[in-house]
Specification:
Layout: H1 2-17, H2 20-27, H3 31-45, E1 50-52, E2 57-59, H4 61-84, E3 93-99, H5 101-118, E4 122-128, E5 142-146, E6 155-162, E7 164-168, H6 170-176, E8 189-193, E9 200-203, E10 209-212, E11 215-220, H7 223-231, E12 236-240, H8 241-250, E13 254-255, E14 265-271, H9 279-294
Parallel strand pairs: 3-4, 3-5, 8-11, 8-12
Antiparallel strand pairs: 1-2, 5-14, 6-14, 7-12, 7-13, 9-10
Length: 295
Amino acid sequence: MLDDLDEMRTFQRILALGSLSAAARDLGVSLAVVSKRLATLERRVGQRLIHRTTRSLSSTDEGTALLPRIERVLEALDAAEDWIAEGRDEPVGTLRVSAPISLGRLHVAPVLGAMMAAHPRFETELRLGDGLIDLMEARIDVAVRIGPAQDSSYVMRKLADSHRVLVASPDYLDRRGRPKTPDDLAEHDGLRSIGWTGPWRLSNASGTLVDIHPTCRLRSDNGEVVHDWGLQGRGIMLKSSIDVSTDLKLGRLERVLPDWRSPAAPIYALIPSAEHVARKTRLFLTALSDALKSS
């Protein structure tokens, strides 16, 4: 059984790292041992799993089909070892995370980078995108989201609260003027994401709600493009306060109608189950929550 696991782990590392020699270094064994384990696994399954030449390496169709099954076995083993070692602080294995582009780049990625530096047995894969993906099919361990919770079979853990605020570059506001009331926004250019078609709903300290229907001649399905347009002085955008906190501190963006903001929208994480949560997942959720609350 242990030999079977060594063969499977070796096969996974070969494909992850792109060569037999890199897998040997990663596993702390000789190149001959790696070659023998691969040959034994191929003989066991009765199929060639990897195409090998002197210059390149790639998986066969059979190897590609086998890889996700082997990864699930190895991940389950790592999770079991992590769960058994209750007193240990060391996270083990690969954590697969998905997040919106801006939130992921500015806040999730630094947390994962710090975890990698602090824990030698920790690995991560980060998927960034503003659209929804099939979490089960992508084998996501933690999906970070912002805004109203979507229907999901995953369990939700709240990380922090966030508000969307109106922002624009000082250059744009110098040219076009600074709105004094929500009605003044009708005279300004808006910037927005394509997927968001509803009004900009704002509230003030007294609880008054207004819906703004901005004229947005620039629209994109990528939040980073919208953000860049804002920095370039192309218009006013409604963005998460966490996403624009650095730009506001550095003076690259300026609050518009600072007494108005969107109702609170939670930043939350989706995880497959609340039972036996892996240590790597718990450490990540705690670190991300602390980072978001301090931003």
